[in-house]
Predict the 3D structure of the following.
Amino acid sequence: MESQLYNLNIERAVLSSIIFDAKIFEEVETKIKAKDFYLPFHKYLFGAMVELFKEEKPIDEEFLRTKLITQNHFDELAMIDIISSNAISNTMAYVDEIKKYANKRAMITLATTIKKVTIEDNMESSEIMNLVEKKLYEITQESTTDDFRNAKEISLSMLSDINRLKALGNSKLIGTDTGFRNLNDMTSGFGKGDLVIIAARPAMGKTGLVLNMALKALGRGEGVAFFSLEMPAEQLMLRMLSAKTSIPLQSLRVGNMIDSQWTQLSNAVNEMSHQKLFVEDGGYATIHHVRSKLRKLKSHNPDITMAIIDYLQLMSGDGSGVGRQQEVSDISRGLKQLARELQMPIIALSQLNRGVESRDNKRPMLSDLRESGAIEQDADIILFVYRDDVYREAMEKQKEMKGKADGKEYKSDYVKKEVEETELIIGKQRNGPTGTVNLMFHKAYTRFVDAPIGGAREIIYENMDTSDHATIDLPIPF
């Protein structure tokens, strides 16, 4: 039985190969970690190699011996066994075997954990399933989230990020590109692990905006996961193709196009068919469903950079009968945790209360979010889509209908626009300013574009130091 869980000869062969040719260590270290070795001394030895590599010191017998003696982990006989191992030519094949054995041991540990939480801890089945999926994802991704991170590791990671950002010069983009220059200027992009809420009243282009974001991400060669709870995938694709080709959406729906547009559409469809768009349009989703599907998709497609959910209020609870407000709270908290786990932004569309319609100023506020308490607390960024022309057109129609009802003729001077000004209101940003970003909406193509330069306005900094530190040199990582 145990012979199926480890092979000490393979472990010795890999460690020996590194000692005799340290140049291969960097490639080996991308595939396995110290914890993947079975014999404790082998774990210590590989860990010492990692430390020497970070310290830019030779990974040889003498330095390893000194390091392990200092740590009180040196074993002379075990070291001799490694040094005397036969040389191997295809080291990475042996590395893969070590990883396979490590995964088997991890699965046995998981099976023991499942038995414990099921029988001894009497955990709920939904919680057990979530635990299993999370652990399986960690195994496949070589996650180390179970361990505490010490201050030195955190500090080095932070300084590395700061130095990387400093090297970018004047670039304001830190996270995932939103697809809009003005929005990038205000947010520096959507951060890894961010929960982004985009909310609007009906007819504002709620869905169209995120499809534009997805389309631009796909154009950069990135992957996008889309949970569509409101419309089938074919309708989403139609909107994206309209935005991409500048062929009116209505023309695409009925196939009313001239020859050049058919050619343009054919080319666009061919291009889209090769991009990394994944749509789940079953129309039903719980937080457990989304978590399970997205973990699996991300593990097989690591280049997915964002996930979109259309929309949050259509997600269902787990049937526990705790009430809708608590269900939404569980959903928003679950999405935030999932975004952090997968290290990618999750963008969730959300509805607004009808109360906004009763105000003279119909620009949305945080209090207009349906079930706003939990959503407002969990979200890192909350964006509101507002088009004033939607309300102006509706108001003119009401006046016209009232005039007819009163037997009076009402002549409106309102002219429908093909391109409407749109305000993207940043109602909350955990790590940046709030304010308004101006976009333009091309109605026929359901396409949003940046407003002319200077479109960002009403920037509000909340307890932020905005002084210029450009001349300050950052410390060198120790």
